[in-house]
Write a structure and sequence with these properties.
Blueprint (H helix, E strand, L loop, with lengths): L13 H4 L16 H14 L4 E6 L4 E5 L5 H21 L10 H21 L8 E4 L1 H24 L1
Antiparallel strand pairs: 1-2, 1-3
Helix pairs in contact: 2-3, 2-5, 3-4, 4-5
Length: 161
């Protein structure tokens, strides 16, 4: 008497039985783009401190002030961008933070801090850079990069869930 086979022994590959629309956690896609978005936004955030944040004109002179020369907040934006890059580089090299410090929340907090610093500089032009009468493209790039770090942190948090 022969017993029926309930399990197909010949096809032991679980990937062959998975539906084609199933998105695996390691597969590329929007949710797996969190780390890529984080390091690109961190790099742009660090470099944006050396872009023109303010522009203006005086008597026969046009001037542009980079973020590094706009005060302490411009320098802090640069170092926050470096910190985000260091977190990504350490993770890629195999160093992981303790479980009590979620990496995605740390990146999210750094992005929020950088965005707040840039928003302060958008709202109030420091007296040291006057007669700058407008904002340059660099400060808007800094704002976009800060928001990109926040987005990368949110996507990484979604990956960890």
């Amino acid at each position: 008497m022969e017993t029926p086979d309930f399990f197909d022994v010949e096809s032991s590959d679980p990937a062959a039985t998975a539906p084609p629309d199933y998105a695996r956690p390691g597969s590329p896609g929007l949710w797996a783009a969190g780390e890529r978005i984080t390091w690109v936004a961190g790099l742009v955030l660090a470099l944006s401190s050396f872009m023109g944040w303010y522009a203006g004109s005086g008597v026969g002179v046009k001037l542009a002030v980079i973020g590094w020369h706009s005060g302490v907040l411009g320098k802090l934006v640069f170092f926050i961008g470096l910190a985000v890059l260091a977190i990504v580089a350490l993770r890629e090299s195999g160093f992981e933070l303790p479980p009590s410090i979620p990496e995605s929340l740390l990146v999210l907090g750094l992005g929020a801090l950088a965005t707040i610093f840039v928003l302060i500089r958008i709202i109030s032009i420091p007296d040291a850079v006057l007669p700058a009468d407008g904002r340059g493209i660099g400060i808007w790039i800094s704002l976009a990069a800060g928001l990109g770090v926040i987005l990368g942190g949110l996507l990484r948090a979604a990956e960890e869930l």
